[in-house]
Structures are given as structure tokens and as C-alpha cells.
Write a structure and sequence with these properties.
Structural class of chain B: mainly alpha
Radius of gyration of chain B: 22 Å
Largest sheet of chain B: none
Strand order of the largest sheet of chain A: 5-6-7-3-8-9
Distance between the termini of chain A: 35 Å
Low-confidence stretches of chain B: none
Number of strands of chain B: 0
Largest interface: A-B, 31 and 29 residues
Radius of gyration of chain A: 24 Å
Strand content of chain A: 25-35%
Distance between the termini of chain B: 39 Å
CATH class of the largest domain in chain A: Alpha Beta
Low-confidence stretches of chain A: none
Largest sheet of chain A: 6 strands, mixed
CATH architecture of the largest domain in chain A: 3-Layer(aba) Sandwich
Number of domains of chain A: 2
Oligomer: heterodimer
Number of helices of chain B: 12
Helix content of chain B: over 70%
Number of strands of chain A: 13
CATH topology of the largest domain in chain A: Rossmann fold
Order of helices and strands of chain A: EEEHEHEHHHEHEHEEHEHEEHEH
Number of helices of chain A: 11
Mean pLDDT of chain B: 83
Shape of chain A: elongated
Structural class of chain A: alpha/beta
Bound molecules: adenosine-5'-diphosphate, magnesium ion
Shape of chain B: elongated
Chain lengths: 312, 283
């Protein structure tokens, strides 16, 4: 079953079309990355998917419900980390969490234990009774994530969870996201403009630009989509490097070959070619030490998509 | 099952608890709400009582002033029988001051508290960006709106009733020590506190909620609210001071009129209130 499925979802503000004919699906249990720079429409999409905003046109089905008309029922099962932590700074961590436990209908007898567990898990237990106003940014963010996950939602929306954090806090947040997805089996909808983050955490990503979806798939699929060749580096014994070179030049789909010492670097358009190529090399007696894939990073893909978008 | 039983009362209570906790931690909000009651329900009535009780009986100026005061009151059809059972001029004057002159304060306190707390819980919450998390909770628009009305109302009533208790202690203390009689509260006061005060509180908060939908900070909301509330308050004070006259019937009518206005304000705000709309004004 799809956790999220949208068809032609649109949201128009006065002059701005923040979300423009968005159609995509998110599988249950996956970590789905939603990439886009500022103003692309990520936050608006979360609001549409969680029934906070009414779409101008189009349709969304989230956890089998219609977000806007069945918002109360849907929001029982979703958790949201908003762009700013939106914590009550005058209240303590415990107060912040227990109020939201009530708001989300966590069974009364479990509230205290759940709040304590969360604070322990997110490494906030020793400052649980301090006012949140005195927390560091990283602590606030951890508390906000704890709050989003307090009621064990089936679907969790994270809106730029690490954009204001230093690398160490970011890593902590990444660990938590992995934990949430693996241990609890929740679906994670991760909005970010941090490409390394998406690459690390997400199975599939969608790239959003000016409210429109410009690409969707695994990072690998996206690379193919923008026609980005895969780079490989082959290491062979010095004595067989000549043979290797001549074999490679006969393989269809291999291009941009360069040689230095024992290394041959080349591009391949399809992954499948790699297996055939290896068979041929070995059959010709080439002694292979290593083959390293230098796949395009999400960053390369993102900028390629961006350039493509600007060109058209 | 009736409609209101199906509402998410636990969620509504959580919002109210949050608002009250936050409000009572904000000095800018709590200071005016505490200073006024201390002046009007403790210091001022105590001062008046002490001055009256200690004024020498043969002080010509004093009895002249009291005499004038009495004749003013006698021109009004006062069907307050309690006053006729008081013997001395001093006792009667004090009775009039305590039971009538202080009425406007108990109209001002709920209107002011309701308005301040509403400004904090609507615009203040926008300002602190905490509203963003609230709109993603399972509460319906209606439940959110209701909770946002109840927090200022509850705060105003707590404060008003506590002030009334404090005032009662001072007034009865003075009257008991001077004349051996407790006078507070009478039926008119009970109606005022239980029927009129919450209505007035709702008026203050309703106007502020209405005004704060156009602004984005606590200060602006409070000022916008005060801009509307001040004339209303002055009108009330003027009325009350000019007539020095209120009783059970008048309180009941006054309350009914204000409640009707509240219903109008509530529906006006409810129609404009949706989580999408408050978010739009937020950004
Ligand atoms: N409530 C609103 N009213 C008007 N315009 C809005 C509103 N919310 C968002 N927008 C506009 O919609 C676009 C997308 O915004 P947003 O969803 O916040 O992007 P992102 O989260 O990707 O940075 C922006 O141009 C923004 O200015
Ligand atoms: Mg955003």
C-alpha cells in the first residue's frame, strides 16, 4: 500500500503557485527524500499532505485518508517536525512533551513513561525539567523530533531537520531518523535541501523545483534520467594493462577511457554492461585487482537537473 | 450522544493548560493583571476604610462631604434595603462606596485580562511560532478556536473571582471592625461576578481575537484590542460613576446584552478561523 499518493496536487496563493500538478507516491515504510531549495514548495506540500491547507485542485490520499476532509483522523497517525522547532520556550521539556501527548491522545497511563523514554532516547533526560528557552539549537531540534515521534506515528514529516545544526548534531539527527524508520517501521517524508543527507538516508528521492516535480526515483535512477554516465575505475596488473585497454575498447557503451599507471578510468551508460565487461576481461586473461564505481552523487544529479530546468 | 461530548476535550484541555502555563510565566502579561487587582481590591478599599473609620465624628468637612454624597444617592430610586438598616452616616457612606463605586473595577478587570491573554495566546503564539506545531495536531479547527476562547476566559474568571474574594475580605473586615456587620457580597454582586464578569471577559477577548487576526505580534494585538476596549470600558465607567446604581435586575440585563454581543463576536471569529488562514497570516 502507498503511504502517500498524489495526483495533480496544486496549491495557489495569491500570485504564487507554490505546488504545481504534483503527482507521486511514497511506499509504506520507506524513507522518502523531498529535495528542493528555498521556496520550492516543500513546506506547502507537507501542509497539504497533513490536511492543514486545502489544495486548490488535485487529490492526495495519505494513509488511505483524504487529508483535508479527514484531517483529524489523519493527524492522529502522523507526526510533524516543522521547519522551526515550534517549542514553547517558557515551558520545560517534560511540559512540552506531555502537552503534545494529550493533544495526540497518547493513552493516559502511558504518558509519563513515554515522555521519560523519549527524553532518555534523545539524550535530554538530565535537563528534562529545564525551560526549553535555555537549550542549544541541537537540543531543541532533538526535543522537537522527540515530540513529533511521541505518539508513534505511522508517517512522519520532517521539514529540513538539520538545516540549522552543526555537523555533530546533524549526525545525531540522522541516527534518529534511521532508528525511527528501522525500529518502528514508520514511513519518513524528509524535506531537505541537503543532498548528502538525502543520499545517506533516502531510498528514493523526488526533486522539486518551483512547485513542480522535475525528477523522482533512486539516486541511481535519477542519474540515468539526466543521462549521467557512470564512472568506473579498474585496477589491473601492469603486465595485462594493454590487453585490458584493447578489450575495453571493444565493449559497447564504454567511453571516455583514460589510463594512468595501473588504473583505467572509463564511463559506462548501463550498469548491466559491467558484468559482461568483467567476463570478457577475465576470459582474455586480464588480472583484475579492483573495480570501483564512482557513481554520480546526488549533488551532481541535482545540479544537472537544475541546469536542465533552466535551459528549457 | 450530543455533539459536544464528541469533541476532543482532552486536546482542548491540553491547549488551555499550555496557554495558562505560558501566560503565567510571562511577566509582561502577568504584571498588569496583578498590579490592578492589588491596587483596587486591596490597597484602595483598605485606605478608604481606614480613613473613614479614623475620621473624627465632629470633622465638619468630612460630614459635609458625606452629606452631599448621601443626598446624591437619595435622588436615585435605590431599592437596596440593606443600607437602611445601617445606623450611622459613616456606615452608610462606606456601604455606598464599597457596594457601588467599586463596581466599574470588576468590569474592567475581566475585560482587560481576557484581552491580554487572548493577545498572548493568538498573536503571541504566532510570534513565537508555536502555532505552527499546533495546527499539525489532530484538533479540528473548531476545537482549536474553542480552546483559544476558553484560555483567556478561564484566566479572567480565576483572576476576577480571586480579586472578589480579596475584596470581600477587606470590605467585610472594615465593616465588621467598624460597625459589626458584613455586607459583601449581596445578590447583585453575585450576579455581577458570575453572570456579567464572564460576559465582559468574552467581550474583551473576542474583540482582541478579531483584531489580532490582522496583526502578527503580541504588542500589536494587545494595542489593537485595547483600542476597541478602552472606549467601551470608559463608557461603562462613565455610566457606573454617573449613576452609582446597579442591582440584580440591571446586572441580569447588562449581562444578557453583553452575552448577545459575545455570541456575535464568537461566530464572526469562528467563520474567519481556519488553520490554513492563521498559518497564512503567520508567514
Ligand atoms: N501562506 C502563504 N501565502 C502566500 N505565499 C506562500 C504562503 N506559503 C508559502 N508561500 C509561497 O509559496 C512558495 C513555496 O513556499 P514553501 O512551501 O515554504 O517552500 P519551501 O518550504 O520549499 O522553502 C514560496 O514562494 C512562498 O513564498
Ligand atoms: Mg520550507
Amino acid at each position: 500500500m502507498h503511504a502517500i499518493h498524489t495526483t495533480d496536487l496544486c496549491k495557489q496563493f495569491n500570485q504564487t503557485r507554490a505546488v504545481n500538478h504534483l503527482s507521486f507516491s511514497v511506499e509504506e515504510g520507506e524513507v522518502f527524500g523531498f529535495l528542493g531549495h528555498n521556496g520550492a514548495g516543500k513546506t506547502t506540500t507537507i501542509r497539504l499532505l497533513n490536511g492543514v491547507l486545502e489544495p486548490t485542485s488535485g487529490r492526495a490520499v495519505v494513509l488511505g485518508l483524504s487529508p483535508y476532509s479527514q484531517g483529524e483522523e489523519l493527524r492522529q497517525q502522523t507526526g510533524v517536525l516543522t521547519e522551526s522547532p515550534a517549542l514553547d520556550e517558557r515551558l520545560t521539556a517534560v511540559q512540552n512533551l506531555s502537552i503534545f501527548a494529550d493533544l495526540y491522545g497518547v493513552p493516559r497511563q502511558e504518558v509519563k513513561k513515554r515522555v521519560d523514554d523519549m527524553l532518555g532516547q534523545f539524550d535530554l533526560a538530565d535537563r528534562a525539567d529545564e525551560k526549553v528557552g535555555g537549550y542549544s539549537k541541537g537540543m531543541k531540534q532533538r526535543l522537537a523530533i522527540a515530540r513529533a515521534f511521541l505518539h508513534r506515528p505511522r508517517l512522519i514529516f520532517l521539514d529540513e531537520p538539520t538545516s540549522s545544526l552543526d555537523p555533530i548534531s546533524s549526525r545525531g539527527v540522522h541516527d534518529m531518523i534511521r532508528h525511527i524508520s528501522q525500529e518502528e517501521g514508520a514511513t519518513v517524508f524528509l524535506c531537505t535541501h541537503n543532498l548528502t543527507e538525502a543520499q545517506r538516508l533516502c531510498k528514493r528521492v523526488a526533486v522539486l523545483e518551483k512547485g513542480q516535480l522535475v525528477a523522482i526515483g533512486t539516486p541511481h535512477e535519477l542519474g540515468a534520467q539526466v543521462g549521467m554516465a557512470l564512472r568506473y575505475q579498474l585496477e589491473v596488473s601492469e603486465s595485462t594493462i594493454q590487453t585490458a585497454q584493447s578489450v575495453l575498447s571493444t565493449v559497447a557503451g564504454v567511453s571516455e577511457m583514460t589510463v594512468d599507471n595501473q588504473h583505467i578510468t572509463f564511463s559506462i551508460t548501463h550498469r548491466e554492461t559491467v558484468a559482461d565487461m568483467m567476463t570478457m576481461l577475465i576470459n582474455h586473461g586480464v588480472r583484475v585487482y579492483s573495480l570501483v564505481a564512482q557513481e554520480a552523487t546526488l549533488e551532481d544529479i541535482y545540479f544537472a537537473l537544475h541546469d536542465e530546468g533552466n535551459a528549457s | 450522544m450530543t455533539q459536544w461530548m464528541k469533541w476532543n476535550w482532552r486536546g482542548i484541555r491540553a491547549v488551555i493548560r499550555k496557554d495558562l502555563l505560558v501566560v503565567f510565566k510571562n511577566r509582561m502579561v502577568i504584571a498588569p493583571m496583578l498590579i490592578l487587582p492589588i491596587i483596587f481590591t486591596l490597597l484602595l478599599p483598605l485606605l478608604v476604610g481606614v480613613l473613614y473609620l479614623n475620621a473624627p465624628a465632629d470633622d465638619q468637612g468630612f460630614s459635609n462631604a458625606v452629606g452631599e454624597f448621601e443626598s446624591l444617592v437619595q435622588n436615585i430610586p435605590l431599592n437596596d434595603t440593606a443600607i437602611t438598616t445601617l445606623e450611622s452616616l459613616k456606615a452608610r457612606s462606606l456601604y455606598l462606596i464599597y457596594m457601588y463605586l467599586f463596581v466599574p473595577f470588576f468590569l474592567m478587570l475581566p475585560v482587560m485580562t481576557g484581552s491580554i491573554v487572548a493577545a498572548d495566546s493568538f498573536a503571541g503564539e504566532k510570534e513565537r511560532k508555536t502555532l505552527e506545531a499546533l495546527v499539525h495536531t489532530p484538533l479540528s479547527d473548531f476545537e482549536l478556536y474553542l480552546a483559544k476562547w476558553l484560555s483567556p476566559l478561564i484566566t479572567a474568571m480565576i483572576l476576577t473571582l480571586l480579586s472578589a474574594v480579596m475584596y470581600g475580605i477587606v470590605v467585610n473586615g472594615v465593616m465588621l471592625s467598624g460597625f459589626g456587620r458584613a455586607i459583601f457580597p449581596n445578590w447583585a454582586w453575585l450576579v455581577l461576578l458570575i453572570w456579567v464578569a464572564p460576559a465582559i471577559a468574552c467581550m474583551g477577548l473576542g474583540v482582541t481575537v478579531w483584531a489580532s487576526s490582522r496583526v502578527s505580534t503580541f504588542q500589536e494585538a494587545y494595542q489593537a484590542g485595547a483600542f476597541v476596549i478602552l472606549p467601551i470600558t470608559i463608557l461603562f465607567i462613565g455610566q457606573a460613576a454617573g449613576v452609582i446604581y446597579f442591582d440584580v435586575v440591571i446586572s441580569l440585563i447588562l449581562g444578557a446584552v453583553v452575552w448577545a454581543f459575545d455570541v456575535f463576536l464568537y461566530t464572526l471569529g469562528a467563520r474567519r478561523f481556519s488553520r490554513g488562514a492563521i498559518l497564512s497570516r503567520l508567514t
